[in-house]
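Teaching assistant here, posting this on the class forum so everyone can see the example we discussed in section. The complex has two components, and the goal was to see what a joint structure prediction looks like when all of them are supplied at once.
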Amino acid sequence: MTHYFKTPLTRRQCLGLLAKAGSSSAILGAAGIFGLTNIPVNASPVALKPLQGKNRKVLILGAGISGLTAAYELERAGYSCKILEASHRVGGRVLTLRHGDFINELGTPQICPFDDAPNLYFNAGAARIPAHHTGILHYCRTLGVELQLFSNHNKNCYTQDDAAFNGQPVRIREYEADMRGFVGELLAKSATADSTLDQPFNEQDLDKFIQFARAYGDLDADLTYRGTDRAGYAAGGVTSPAILKQPRSLPDLLRSDFCTGAMHFAEIADQAPALMTPNGGMDSIVKAFLRQLTTPVQLHCQVSNIQLLPQGVAVTYLKQGESYTERADYCLNCIPAQLVSGIENNLPADYVAIMRQLGRGKLTKIGLQAKQRFWEQEDIYSGISWTKQDITQIWYPHHDAFKAKGILLGAYSWEPQISDRFAAMTHQQRLATAIAQGTKVHANYGQYIENGVSVCWQRMNHMLGCGAVWTEELQKTGFELLQAPAGNHYLIGDQLSMHPGWQEGAVRSAWHVLADIERRETLRTGARA
Amino acid sequence: MNKIWLVFILLSSAVQADSKQPDAQYCLVCHGSAAQGNAAIKAPNLTMLPDWYLRQQFIAFRNNWRGSDANDSHGKEMQAVANSMNDAEIDQAIAFIRHRAPVHVSISVNTTADIQHGRQLYQQCQACHGANGEGNAQLHAPPLAGQHNWYLVQQLRAFKNGWRGNQGDDNYGQIMRQFAQSLANDQAIADVVAYIDSLPPTQPLVRTTR
């Protein structure tokens, strides 16, 4: 958790911060909501005209969401597709880990040690879907992926900051109630002060505004905050009279960085309630695509050469030490740009130069198997606790309440320096760190944790990065160039969206390319006729 | 926590399984499809490096001579891989690289560098690295000609700031560090690397096994 919201945000700054937050938020959807771009958030799915017997071949490099989306739409229109995937699995950064899964992190390979049970899974990559991500939701609907609610914000979770409250965790409910109480009081009192007479309010407006401030902070009639049941009761409240908790002091609250950062996380457009996630793990979407696809998906095919031809593209790949070359009319490439840059090619130099400037997203997630769902004893079901330590977040499962065991997210940071620190550790050190830091949020944390997985996305084989990092400058100079085709080669994936790190970006980038192919095919057949 | 150890055992076998596939292709993920290097990953050209130097660097990563500094994230990436490989796998990887054809990298000329100044600075380099940057196995000095200029810059900086050549038992690294420290600043580094770039690729790159 970083230093966002330390000063009042302009809209531009806000968008910048969203972009920095990488996978947890990003610009496209937010910008749509804020009305700053003309990309319609509700664009309808691309409709490719059927080829009607013509033979058009498309090679798709990478079996993540963008590649699967492209294959699904193209094969329905009669294109003949093949997906080449470098790794041992389908799904890209949609990675749901279960018992026995191989985690191919360079230098830190693991076998997922979770017990073999349907509720013990961990979304190590994509984990949540906001309702305005209509592209990916379109496929959930069409392919029959069942969804459940996912919560970022749970008032019963904790905030922990060594700088405040002696490092003790505080319920978000209490912290927010008190903070809002003081803010409400300040608002109400400043509104009644003489200085507001110059404000462009009439008497009625002013009265309403003071009522708002009172409701915002849950103030007494004299506009003073004296505590609220929003913070929960100190005692009683059901069969005996409620006793309110004493408010914490404002200076104490301000010592914690929660009020300048994570407290507002669920206000971010892409993180605000209500969110959704597929039942049984995010890879339900991948499985749903695979159920429908007739396109072959070849695993362990590592692309070694991409050659633009006068008409079409030739792709050479290594499979178990043997080299194969295939030609196609089009190549849709969702290999991460940082790796394309190392693949022999005859792509235009300026095109490859942009790929080399894209930053590699650094992001670490740790999943922990708990032998008891101890959080339920603390009235926590789903949501996120926040801490200023490197682990940054603890997520509680949003599913399968009251089962014997559960998988916690034990660390999740998109701060590059933090992710570098985790990457530098052995897997055992990462787990030990997650447990030691988690103990500041839940005493005896370690006694519940049985095993775990750690995924540093900048180290994952065949990826070497999480969401692409576009600087504002590079986005201005390079985005359109990289989004445009080079001959019959298209770079796709969430990297080619203003929404890197989100499935929505992957879907939309595929749609963008499919629309262009449709346009070219129409021109082509038109020219022949 | 006992299960952690079970994971550890399992993962050792996973590594073996993975490299038993003719999948020293592993190297090519970062170092490029022809092992020619990849600027986006800051991974060097391996094809111009002789076997003895590749082996020496595996040792350097394993011994924490390279990748030890907390800020050296690229070094740490290679260190993690080196640490996960056993001796046989290292042999396999080196053999795999030897079967790649040498790739002469295309050079983007640094227009702000002073090649003449670079030539003067290179005087002290050539005793070990050779007049044509061809390297010297006896002195454990790698070839430089044919390496990406951005990688040479990065490594000179790494020696200068102590990411390399800063460990007591890394004799060759320590020697190199002293020379790197004699380069006054980034301009001097740019100049000497520009001169190395300008060396004619006349010498065949001999890839000997020691």
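For the discussion questions: Confidence is low (pLDDT under 50) at residues 5-22, 202-210 of chain B. The two ends of chain B are 45 Å apart (CA to CA). Think about how each of these relates to the inputs above.
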